[in-house]
Amino acid sequence: MNFEKYHALGNDYLVLEPSECSQPLAENEIIKICHRNFGLGSDGILLGPSLTTEADFGLRILNPDGSEAEKSGNGLRIFARYLRDQGKVGVEPFSIHTLGGIVTCEVTSDASVISVEMGKVSFHSDEIPVDVEGHPREVLDESIEAAGQKLQYYAATIGNPHCVVPVDKVDRAFACDIGPILENHSNFPNRTNVQFLEVLDRNNIRIEIWERGAGYTLASGSSSSAAGAVARKMGACDDNITVHMPGGKIELRIDDEFNVTMTGSATRVGSMTLDSECLVGR
Question: What is the pTM of this model?
Answer without folding.
Answer: 0.95
